[in-house]
Amino acid sequence: MSTTQETLVKSFREYVNKLVTYSQAIAVLSWDLRTKAPRKGTEARSNVIGMLSGEHFKLATSPQMEEYLLALEEPAVFSTLDPILAKTVQECRKEFDRSKKLPADRYQEYVVLTATSGSVWEEARPKNDFAAFRPYLEKIVAFQQEFIGYWGYNGHKYNALLDMYEPGMTVGQLDPMFATLRAKTVDLVAAIAASPNQPDTSFLTKHYEPSEQEKFNRFIVEQIGYDFAAGRLDVSAHPFCTTFAPTDVRITTRFIPNDLRTALFGSIHETGHAIYEQNISMDLFGTPLCDGTSMGIHESQSRYWENMVGRSLPFWNHFYGDLTKQFPTQLEGVNVERFYRAVNQVTPSLIRIEADEVTYNLHIMIRYELEKGLIEGSLAVEDLPHLWNEKMQEYLGVTPDSDANGCMQDVHWSEGLFGYFPTYSLGNVYAAQITNTLKKEISNYDELIASGQFAPIRSWLKEKIHRHGKMKSPNELLQDITGELTNANYLVDYLESKYKTIYQL
Prior knowledge:
Elements (H helix, E strand, L loop, with lengths): L2 H33 L6 H19 L2 H10 L2 H4 L4 H18 L3 H21 L5 H22 L6 H8 L5 H24 L15 H15 L8 E3 L5 E5 L2 E6 L6 H19 L16 H15 L3 H14 L9 H8 L16 H17 L7 H13 L25 H20 L3 H6 L4 H10 L9 H9 L6 H14 L3
Protein name: Metal-dependent carboxypeptidase
Organism: Brevibacillus fluminis
Function: Broad specificity carboxypetidase that releases amino acids sequentially from the C-terminus, including neutral, aromatic, polar and basic residues.
C-alpha cells in the first residue's frame, strides 16, 4: 500500500469513527429521554437529538464521504483493503446512496418529529388518547411515503422499508411464509383450546413486589450471561436494549405487581439482545459493522433466550429453587412442572409482548398487514383503531377493550419503525432453525441448561453469530450455520413438539 493510499485509509477511518461517535451521543440522549429525562425536557431534548442527527446525516452524505468512497472503490485500491475496511466501505456506500436521496432539512425535521412523537405516545397511551397521538402518526406515515418516493423500490413499496431492517427480505417472500405459519398456528391453537389439560396460572398473578422482582431479574440475567460491568438494567414504558459500544449495552424492563411473567421474560428477552451486542468483536468498534447484522437475526437471539431457554423445563429445573426462595408465599405448593406448564400457557391475548410463543406470530401478522396498507395508501391512520380490532377478532378471537391495549400498545410506530415488525417473526423462524443445528453440535445441550452452564452455548453463539457483527449478511449466517436459507418448518416442528407434549394432544 502506497503512502498516499495509507493516508487515504487513515483519514477515512477517522471520518467513519467520527460518524460512529455522533451515533453514540445520539443513542445516549435517546436512552436518557426514554428512561430518566423529566417530561418538561422532552421538547428541548428532542431538538438536540434532531440537531445531532442532522449533523450525522450531513457527514454521512457529504462530498467528502463521496470522495472517500470513490477513491476506495477503485478496483486497484479496493482489492488491497483488509476485510473489515472493505466491508465498511460497502456499508457506507449503501447508507450514502440511500441517505443522499433525502433532503437534509426533511430528514432533520423527521428526526425531531419521531423524538417528540415517542414522548407523546408515552403520555397518550395510558390515557387511551389515540386522538392526541394520531396527528403525529399521520405525519410519520406521510414522511415514510415521501422517503420511499426518493429511494425508489422494487415490487411492493413496503420492500424499501423492510430492507432497512432485514436486508434481502421482500413482501414476496414474507407473504407465503406468513400464510403457512398462520394456517399451522391456527390449527395448533384450536387443538390446544380444545384440550382438557389446561394449566393453572392463578399463582402467577398474585402480588409480586416489584423490588423483589427486580432482585430476581438481576440475578437471572447475570446467570444467563449479561455483563453488568458493561451494562445496566432500568425501567421504561416499553422494554428495550440500546448499545453505545460492546462495553456499554443497556437494557430496560417494566414491572407489573400482579404478573410475574412480564418483567421476568421481558428481561430475559432483552438480555438476549444484549448478549449479542456485548460479544461483537471489538475489532469492529468504531465502524458501522459493530452492530447486529439484521433485526431478524437480533430477534432470534432474544427469542432464543426468552423462549427456547427461559421457558424450557431444564432451565427451571435448575432455577426454580431460587425463584421459590424469592417468592416463597406466592409459589407455596407449586412444583416445577406446574410452574413450567403455567409459563407456557397458550391463550389469545391483547398485548404482543405478553403473548405466548404460539400466538405471537399472529400479532406480528396483524401489524404487518396494517403497515402494508398504510404505506401503499389503501388505509388511513384514522382507520387503525377499528381495523386493528377487527383483525384481532379475526386472527385471535379477542377484541381490545381500548386503543391503549390495541393499536397504541407498541412504541414502534411513534419512532417511525415501519418495516420492523416482521423481523420479530423472522427472529422466531431463525431461532428455531439455528437451535436445530446448535443441538446437533452440542450433544449435552439439555444437560448444560439443566445445570445452569451457559458458557458453552454462549461461546457457540459468539463464534457462529455474535462476533461477526455486520460482517456477514443474514443469509450468509444462516447458510454457514445451518446449510440452508430461511426455513419456517423448524419453527412449526418446534412449536408442535413442545406444545403437544405440554397439552397432551
